[in-house]
Amino acid sequence: MTRKILVVLLILSNISCDQISKKIVRKSVNSNSYIQVLNDNFVLTKIENTGAALGLGENLSPNAKKVFLNILPALVLLFLTYRVLTHKKINTYSIIAFSFIIGGGIGNIIDRFLYGSVTDFLHLKFGFLKTGIFNLADVSVTLGAITILFLSLLKKNEI
């Protein structure tokens, strides 16, 4: 029971942080703004991404977008949630990582469902390294995926 509560709380926390930050950005930041937070290394902006990561799939037909950006990801996240809640041999770190992936994924699906696009607003640049524009849901998914990758490389526990 404690494990299920942890999973639900982590998923809801990730969704909440993502949706609250996007709501603030939608209200406070003009589209394509360039607000330097930490010199030119950390920039706040706002774009509406009608595709997936880095705009992938933004040129798909509306029906294809529904299938590949809403329905299919929602089914995968439902299955993943079911597995995390019911599979007994998943270690705690994997549970946390998968909960981050699920919460972040749901956060972006909520945007696509409500607004037809995902609000992205963070951009990092360090020397020649720079990111695309992203949001907190993307951070959740990325941290979860990196953790799963790291755990799978360690091969100490079942993922």
From TrEMBL:
Ranges annotated as spanning the membrane: 67-85, 92-113, 133-154
InterPro entries for the chain: Peptidase_A8 (IPR001872)
Principal place of residence: membrane
The keyword Transport belongs to this UniProt entry's keyword annotation: no
Reaction equation(s) it catalyzes: Release of signal peptides from bacterial membrane prolipoproteins. Hydrolyzes -Xaa-Yaa-Zaa-|-(S,diacylglyceryl)Cys-, in which Xaa is hydrophobic (preferably Leu), and Yaa (Ala or Ser) and Zaa (Gly or Ala) have small, neutral side chains
Gene Ontology molecular function: aspartic-type endopeptidase activity
Pathway entry: Protein modification; lipoprotein biosynthesis (signal peptide cleavage)
Membrane topology, from the record: Multi-pass membrane protein
Active-site residue list: 120, 138
First-tier enzyme category under EC: hydrolase
Keywords of this entry: Aspartyl protease, Cell membrane, Hydrolase, Membrane, Protease, Transmembrane, Transmembrane helix
Subcellular location as annotated: Cell membrane
EC number(s) on file: 3.4.23.36
PANTHER family named among the record's database cross-references: LIPOPROTEIN SIGNAL PEPTIDASE (PTHR33695)
Function: This protein specifically catalyzes the removal of signal peptides from prolipoproteins.
Family: Belongs to the peptidase A8 family.
Protein's name according to its UniProt entry: Lipoprotein signal peptidase
Lineage: Bacteria, Pseudomonadati, Bacteroidota, Flavobacteriia, Flavobacteriales
